Amino acid sequence: MNVEDMYQQIILDHYREKHHSGLRDDFDAEVTQVNPSCGDELMLRLHLDGDVITDVSYDAVGCSISQASTSVMTDLVIGKTVDEAQQLYRGFQEMMRSHGEQKLDEERYEDAVAFEGVAKLMARVKCAMLGWSALEESMMEAEQNRDTPVSTQNRDTAVSTQNRDTPADAQDSDTVVVARNCGIAPATAGAPAKGERS
Prior knowledge:
alpha+beta; Sufe protein. Chain: A; 3 strands; globular
């Protein structure tokens, strides 16, 4: 088996056996990414313990490349710090933007090197980047949530407490503030709202 065939087999293996697939509770950030050109959709959840990524779970539909790339990405970043995961993201992004001219360190990126061939196909670059882009967005959202007075995990409790102690005519505005503090944004046209399945 030559290298190209081996890389294609790696992608197929991850597509058939998607690592860490299936949304799980107890998360610090939840994001949705869509690639309209290929019909790929992804909802991803990130869980942190301090600065360490302890879990990445996701629910995805779309092509084999987008789903395999997400599977590979989760293997690489779980157990890493946020800074380490961001470095992995930037390296993978640079390789994809180079259209395969820039090579990945196989020892560091493991199965992700299989996407060096995909990088040469411009129409597939967005597919391969979908899960990685969701990871980057989720890390930024988790950091924003950490800096707000109401955390993602406690938002339901906070809303409930405010509703008990706040006059009825003020409850709606307070709930909106809590939602904003938790990083919940209105849905954009053509994409599902955060926390909703398409």
